[in-house]
Amino acid sequence: MYKIQPNLAVTIANGLTLKNPVMTASGTFGYGQEFSPFVDLNQLGAIIVKGLSLEPSPGNPPPRIVETPCGMLNAIGLENVGFQAFVQTKIPFLNQFDTPIIVNIYGKTIDEYALLAEKMDEIPTIAALEINISCPNVKAGGVAFGTDPKLAFSVIASVRQKTTKPLIVKLTPNVTDIVCIAKTVADAGADAISLINTLTGMAVDIHTKKPILRNIVGGLSGPAIKPVALRMVWQVAKFVAIPVIGIGGIMNAQDALEFLIVGAQAIQVGTANFVNTHATMDIITGIREYLVENNIHDIKELIGSLNE
Q: How many alpha carbons lie under 13 Å from residue 88 in its C-beta half-sphere?
């Protein structure tokens, strides 16, 4: 029994409070069901399901994953079941949990984003939407929306008109000025910002002299990107008034704590799920133990406590 019972609850948008700051990163946790034999889904702060589009998508052809010395490259290409199948086959399973369900959505056009958001608005199970304007491996749309401030504004403003659900906007690190993009989506109506998505990278087979990924390039994730992610979260948290959610190379509780200290209200666990199916549970336990050891009664005392 802990000597104190610290409060781990965090608020990431109006009307959306999580029991703890540990969320799953889209694309690394399936639709929740895949990890349910290993993880108590009721203990998570939130479940963010695999990126969803209006129509089913097969993603990119293989090979589409490459291990790297400190992470992995993926070019999955947002393979998903599509909106209709998601509602029919995934929502019934997710309905049974006392954990906010957040759906990551993407479109090839601004109209697709808006239409999908409008459809999601009608589903009570969904607590919030994460708008993916940052995927680096979808040829149509994708990264272009997240690197151009005007396009980013247009997407989020259009989505905002179609839904009352909280909007989390997921940003790409593949830009010159991350703060500019963050301010732009905040002005367009975002309730929170999540960052970073993957860094664009590639791998080559020296024997065939060909790219290993069929898509040629993919998204780099894992421990290698954590210092970049931490710096960008720190920058954005200082300059926007809405909550920031940290993503990038979070493998354990210490990593998560670093993001909270630089100003993240919550964090997402991604690549770590492939290495350790219990990663999210271990991180929640580790955060709680840190608060107890340091006599911190509320996690809000830790968030943004960096001594600069």
A: 5
Residues sharing a CB contact under 8 Å with residue 288, sequence separation 6 or more, in sequence order: 2, 6, 8
Q: Which of 135, 138, 195, 299 is catalytic?
A: 135
How many Å apart are CA 281 and CA 43, to the nearest integer? 8
Contact (Cβ atoms closer than 8 angstroms) between residue 166 and residue 189: no
Check the annotation: does 147 bind a ligand: no
Domain ranges of the chain: 10-301
273 is in an annotated binding site: no
Residues in contact with 217: Cβ distance below 8 Å, sequence separation at least 6, in sequence order: 75, 136, 137, 200, 201, 202, 211
**26 annotated among ligand-binding-site residues:** yes
Q: How far is CA 244 from CA 8, 191, 223, 302, 303, in A?
A: 16, 9, 20, 14, 11
Residue 132 in marked binding region: yes
Which regions of the chain are under pLDDT 50?
136-141
Catalytic residue check, 135:
yes
Q: Which CATH architecture has domain 10-301?
A: Alpha-Beta Barrel (3.20)
pLDDT (tens digit per residue) in 94-142: 999 999 999 999 998 899 999 999 999 999 999 999 999 975 444 444 5
